[in-house]
Amino acid sequence: NAEYMGDLPCDFFNMLATRFLRSRLNVSALVHSTPVTASVNRTSSKVMFNSARSFASNKPFFHNSPITWKSLGFAVVFGAGTVWAYDYLQKQKETRSSYVGESIGKPLIGGAFTLVDNKGNIKTDADFHGNYTLLYFGFCFCPDICPSEMVKMSKVVDILEKTADIGPIVTPLFISVDPRRDTVAQIDHYIKEFHPRMVGLTGTPDQVKDVAKSFRVYASVGPAVQEDNDYLVDHSIIIYFLDKEGNVVDFFGRAFTAEEIAAKMTKTILKMERDSFYAKLKENKGKANK
């Protein structure tokens, strides 16, 4: 057996004995030396020092791992920043939404007017009180923008008509900024292409100018072609939302879709109808108590 084992078994057993003695000495040293907390603190400090040294040298977080200390630190900072930004934006959104429908004072837009409708009847702003109104300024010979905005406005009215608790309480209204060419007959023919309940208005140049000015609408007639007197009118592209008293509640530019406009109007109308209901209820209760 000795010849078979040779020197290797001896070296092997010597190594085991050496490790056993070292382990016994280490245990004895731990028992009879400084408190355990000191050793733990030294060990923790050594680990932290090694971690900092590894971060500075950008060594892998684990052995043979593609994740380094720097990449790990960047991920932690980026993640914390993302969470903070998300919470901040959510709070801002909630703050903005809490002010929907609230306003201070009355906007200096709109006012009284007297015009002629598409049937030749004299109409004033008071004739449209009692219903909500969507108002657009344009002209019948507009090649592209006016038709697309009129289609959008008509779609909004259709969406609101099908919405529960709203129905057909919004009147689509078109006012011409080109009274020179947009006659009563021309407007009547034009608005039939968009919505059956749409009302068209025109008037004298001064009347149209006054109502456009009151709604802060810009309108400028371009150079006319001499042969057929054809020209374009550069004007503001805004759809106004008026309440039942003719006050401007909101307005929408070209960037708004019909669905977005209908959603905003639905929220506003329902709030106004609810406020009106409770106001009448309070008024009737006050009369009954007298």
Could you explain the architecture of this structure?
The strands form 2 sheets. Strands 2-1-5-4-3-8-9 form a 7-stranded mixed β-sheet, with helices on both faces. A two-stranded antiparallel ribbon has the order 6-7. Helix content is 51%, strand content 14%. The longest helix is centred in the C-terminal third of the chain and has 32 residues, at 258-289. It is an alpha+beta fold and 290 residues long. The chain has helices at 2-5, 7-32, 36-57, 69-97, 145-161, 184-191, 205-214, 258-289, and strands spanning 114-117, 122-124, 132-138, 170-176, 199-202, 219-221, 233-235, 239-242, 248-252. Residues 1-10, 24-49 and 95-104 have low confidence and may be disordered. It is extended, with a radius of gyration of 40 Å.
